[in-house]
Design goal:
The protein is α/β, with parallel strands linked by helices. It has 7 helices and 13 strands.
Length: 366
């Protein structure tokens, strides 16, 4: 287990907010899915790295088959497609593994790129944006998240944006954030995606976003505003509502993973991540999204996952198992049950998770 957790302190509107967490899992590609919390029975195992998961789909609306597969599979005929990748207004910088800068709305911005060390000819790589927490930066996420191990073993491109530093919550997701500032951050996302797609062969059906604490709060807003590109998203101690912008329907009902650290996941009792996470779930449920709920008992600290491919391999496998072209509200996990790299304290749907019990190796931090 890691000896420090994603942490930061924020004072805004009288609130103190800590930024935390992420999670890990066993190797993707394990056979034999285990029973998920909330009564999900085991079934077919997940595929290999980036491979198919679960069993063949059940009948969909009107009796037509629901096609299940993974980001490694060819979309079936007639499947929903994401919007074309954005176009950069200018000449993209030459991107390298490590730190990069790009001119975007509002000036020059930085981001870190994590590339597999051995990109193969003709390999179309998924893309996962990884938004850091308040007290951290892209380098912290890269190191603590073992992102290089993840991209090498599970075959994707990691894009780790750096904060601009002009908002109290790191990213502009508060209700007091101007729409102009939100639009600026959305353009930053568009420009990074455009230039990554221009230089590398990417899988447009597998573009996802994951965030930790403040980064998770922003990821919820990105899912609303950029559903035309996102195949899935992961919220680790994030959410919507309260002083954070509320959920609004996205144009794509993409699968999600919503995780928090139980009723003590808060900073000084002020911003309650259980409440914001449940608010996000309410919106997802209302709009027909498939989602996994995970609830541990360690508060605003490192969730007690136990992975081997990389610290958080189970999270990245969730992305790889949910391409854009899945029918709204469906998942291979609905047929197979949760894969073996998801802990027993995760389940499918709102209220499905049985909160973990046991010792926590890392203290809740604010």
């Amino acid at each position: 287990m890691r000896n420090r957790w994603f942490c930061g302190v924020l004072v805004s509107l009288g609130l103190c907010v800590a930024c935390g967490g992420s999670s890990d899992a066993d190797p993707a590609g394990s056979g034999g899915a285990s029973a998920g919390a909330g009564g999900q029975s085991g079934g077919a195992g997940t595929g290999g790295l980036g491979g198919s998961a679960g069993s063949a789909g059940a009948g969909g609306q009107g009796g037509s088959p629901v096609a299940f597969g993974s980001c490694a599979d060819t979309p079936p005929p007639g499947a929903e497609k994401p919007a074309p990748l954005p176009t950069y207004a200018g000449t993209c910088p030459t991107l390298v593994a490590g730190d990069n800068t790009i001119t975007t709305q509002g000036g020059s911005r930085g981001f870190r790129l994590a590339l597999p060390t051995d990109i193969k000819p003709g390999e179309n790589l998924p893309v996962i944006f990884l938004w850091h927490w308040l007290g951290g930066d892209a380098k912290d996420f890269y190191e603590l998240g073992e992102v290089q191990k993840a991209v090498d073993s599970q075959r994707f491109i990691g894009v780790l944006p750096e904060k601009k530093g002009d908002t109290l919550f790191t990213w502009p997701m508060e209700v007091v954030s101007s729409q102009a500032r939100v639009d600026e951050e959305l353009q930053f996302f568009d420009d990074m995606l455009a230039c990554v797609g221009a230089q590398f062969s990417v899988n447009e059906n597998c573009v996802s976003s994951a965030g930790v604490s403040a980064g998770a709060l922003w990821t919820g807003q990105l899912a609303i505003e950029r559903g035309k590109h996102l195949s899935s998203f992961i919220s680790l101690s994030g959410g919507t509502g309260g002083v954070i912008r509320p959920w609004k329907s996205s144009e794509h009902a993409m699968p999600a993973l919503v995780l928090w650290g139980g009723p003590t996941d808060n900073c000084a009792g002020l911003l309650q991540f259980e409440s914001t996470s449940k608010s996000l779930e309410d919106g997802l449920e209302k709009d027909g999204h498939f989602f996994i709920e995970c609830v541990h008992n360690c508060g605003h600290s490192q969730p007690p996952f136990d992975g081997s491919l990389s610290t958080y391999s189970g999270l990245w496998q969730f992305v790889l198992d949910h391409p854009y072209w899945l029918k709204d509200g469906t998942s291979p996990y609905s047929q197979s049950g949760l894969p073996s790299d998801m802990p027993a304290w995760c389940g499918i749907g709102k209220g499905s998770a049985t909160m973990r019990t046991g010792v926590c190796d890392n203290p809740s931090q604010c």
